């Protein structure tokens, strides 16, 4: 049996996939815009989710829908939140994360950001099921029940919205990507 050649065995990710450890030079304004573009774009979407969440959570906490909003409109807003967040995560998982994962460990399947997606979607499925039953008349809409459902996945959702944007900020992205690579990103 031949002995393994330990000297030539891989020792982990290549240097190209690891961030630089030496201090990086200051970015020009143009470079910062390029490197920070994905974070800004992502934060735009995340702010929409945050705002809708705040509306749903305020209503479920106080027992009062926003002024002038019917029960049907409130249920529709909640359903749209679920649908839009599911679409957003599907696009990330199919088109954005695989590209980022080639160099950025945080976007690999077994790590935190995708684990957060799974936890969020467990909550979204319960929320959608509840809303479907309310819309069909099988259940009455009860704000306290909505609050319980939102509380079950709210912490992980809010952490995720922040964590993802933090990973995409200029100072982190420049550790892994060149300006030319950033200009070719799918977002």
Structure report:
By secondary structure, this protein is mainly alpha-helical. It has helices at 29-62, 71-101, 112-136, 143-168, 170-176, 179-183. Helix 1 packs antiparallel against helix 4 (143-168) and helix 3 runs antiparallel to helix 4. The longest helix has 34 residues, at 29-62. It starts with 28 loop residues before the first helix and ends with a helix.
What layout of secondary structure does this protein have?
Blueprint (H helix, E strand, L loop, with lengths): L28 H34 L8 H31 L10 H25 L6 H26 L1 H7 L2 H5 L4
Helix pairs in contact: 1-2, 1-4, 1-5, 2-3, 3-4
Task: Put the structure in a nutshell.
The protein has 187 residues and is mostly helical.
Summing up helix and strand content along with how strands pair, one would put the structural category as mainly alpha
Molecular shape: elongated
What proportion of the residues is helical, as a percent range?
55-70%
Mean pLDDT: 88
